[in-house]
Amino acid sequence: MIETLRHDAVAELCLTNPPANAMGLPFIHAVTEAVRSAPDEGARAIVLSNSGTIFSAGLDVPSLLPLERDGIVTLWRDLFHMMRSMIASPIPVIGALGGHAPAGGCVMAICCDYRIMAEEPKFKIGLNEVAVGIPMPDMLYQVLRYLVGSHQAANMCTTAELMTPQKALRIGLVNELAPADQVRDLAINYAQGVTQLPPNAMQQTRQRTRSELLEMAPEPDEQTLMTVVDSWFTEETQATLRGLVARLKSR
């Protein structure tokens, strides 16, 4: 599900879970392990990229919908752990968004230090959880609020807007746009530039500058986790998710 490529001190983690890099439990575990192990393997920066035209389409709802409560508890706990592993990574994580990044794709993106997205207007990015019946978990909202500010975050979450790369750049959701065939190389070049900085000074400074984000997005306690899980099993959410699966099957 992930192809790891080395570019000197940069570890590129290319998402390769066709057709849409959908996020089931094995995928979430693979991302978490790859991000956590990269520093131990000598990397000084990570680039998270994708093959094809979809960075990630978000949760793999067809595989998750049949799960009982224990399985959904594991899903959300492990998803929050994945987010935390990216946010707390001792080395920078650069997002190379070579295509669509809705829902879980956007979640991975906002946990990166820096995001470069394909500029083609057909690609969309945003947190559309509400549109598929999932109330926005607080941890996701707090990370988004850190990135784009309270007003923009509230609008994004409550309207479930999937926006163009151009709007994402305007509001600070992404840092840079480029043609799709250049996104990966630009992200690697950016990451290589970071690795040229004096490592101790960079790491200590990065730790200080990300401390606020780490405080805003702590590991969720059991009460927070149960609130998210309870919402998954409401009649409204289950009906909306079943409708989504039916639409996917009819394509």
What does this entry look like structurally?
With about 250 residues, the protein is an alpha/beta fold. The protein has one domain (about 1-195): Alpha-Beta Complex (2-enoyl-CoA Hydratase, Chain A, domain 1), CATH 3.90.226.10. About 50% of the residues lie in helices and about 15% in strands. It has 12 helices and 8 strands. The chain has helices at about 25-35, 60-65, 70-85, 105-110, 140-150, 150-160, 165-170, 180-195, 200-210, 210-215, 220-230, 235-250; strands at about 1-5, 10-15, 45-50, 95, 100, 115-120, 125, 175-180. The strands form 2 sheets. The protein has a 6-stranded mixed beta sheet, with helices on both faces. Strands 5-7 form a two-stranded parallel ribbon. β1 and β2 form a beta hairpin. α3 packs across α11.
Features:
single chain; 251 residues; 2-enoyl-CoA Hydratase, Chain A, domain 1; six-stranded mixed beta sheet; 8 strands
Question: How much of the sequence is in beta strands?
Answer: 5-15%
Spatial separation of the terminal alpha carbons: 24 Å
How many distinct helices? Answer: 12
Quaternary structure classification: single chain
Total number of distinct structural domains: 1
Binned, the helix content reads 40-55%
Q: In order across it, which strands form the biggest sheet?
A: 1-2-3-4-6-8
The tally of strands reads 8
Q: CATH superfamily membership, which one?
A: 2-enoyl-CoA Hydratase, Chain A, domain 1
Main β-sheet, in a few words?
6 strands, mixed
CATH fold description:
2-enoyl-CoA Hydratase, Chain A, domain 1
Helix/sheet category: alpha/beta
- Runs in which pLDDT lies below 50 for 5 or more consecutive residues are none
**Overall pLDDT confidence:** 95
Spell the H/E element sequence: EEHEHHEEHEEHHHEHHHHH
In CATH's first tier, which class applies?
A: Alpha Beta
What CATH architecture would you give? Alpha-Beta Complex
Q: Round the Cα radius of gyration to an integer and report it.
A: 17 Å
Broad shape: globular
